[in-house]
Amino acid sequence: MTTLIFPTIQRSIKPGVIDLAWGQPDPNLLPVEEMKRAGERALNEYSWEMLDYGAEAGPGPLLDYLRERIERTEGRALRADQIIVTAGNSDALDQICTFRTQPGDTVLIEAPTYHLAVKILRDHLLDIVPVPTDEEGLRVNDLQAILAELKRVGKQPKFLYTIPTFHNPTGVCLSEGRRRGLVKVAAQENLLLVEDDVYRELAYDAPAPPSLWSIAPDGVVLRMGSFAKSFAPGVRLGFITGNKEFLLRMTGGGLRDSGGGVNHFTAMMLAAACRAGLYDSQIEKLRAAYRERRDALCEAIAQELPKTKFVKPGGGFFIWLQFPDSTDTQVLRGRAPEHGVDFVHGARFFGEGGGTNALRFAFSLYPPDELREAVKRLRNAL
Hints:
Helices cover 41% and strands 14% of the residues. By secondary structure, it is of the alpha/beta class.
């Protein structure tokens, strides 16, 4: 067997450590056999079209499937020019920045928010302004005050990046009243909402609340969806629903004009899998597994770390754990691997200070017994 010089996957975990920093799926839950069948099915059905340059907006079979599913599950009609396929949400956000912003422009984020999305924004040299959140999500009144102050100094934000459904890192959902309030403010202030909706399919107790896109006037929201969490991250596929003029700019840009649609071969395979019902069955499998893992982790935290505070998430991958103010989780993280556990300390999710007494646990990668053991190890480290 040839010795590999380069790694094959992104994840790297120290031996003996239960590493709850990784918001990634358990390899045992990935749809390997399903994709084998989908690949053969797709090649039989689409033949050479799978191996050619793909249409700029994405392949018709996948777009048709997405349109039908979105209309059925979200109750909003979707024209063909209001959706495109992307290479996942990271690609989508990077492309939105490319076509929407210039270095030095102002964008808004939640505090806390997904730390690697902030890294993408910083790649584009943007001025990032945080908006506070609480147990009901983004605080719309604070957003209005921030917009007023920015307007006073002559700044108009290019967009607000938000994760209103099963938030990363907090796990909370933006309340219904705030959803409608946020959409109203955005429409009034000509503020584009970039909605990261990657966890929508992973709802464990009740259906996910309406997306911002589904309740907003046309042009107010660009909603980014992805197959990374609900099917498999390696397919590197997602979609954007939004204003046709902006999506036409993306599909007409140099990237797609030169290379065609993103991940065309895989997108055709995924279309075949979806049309065969494999996507729905994968979602149900993941919901059952992750629900059990979430419950096990929450029960262990309540038993082993009774002085902490957290909200049991209704979906997604994450639990946001808050310790007494005297606890510095960055210091704790330096000690934790010695006890065989790891996590992401809370300060990483804030752009300008905060979260020093919090941490994020991901429950997607490990089975229940290992999650319980991880909490015991953290207690010992603490």
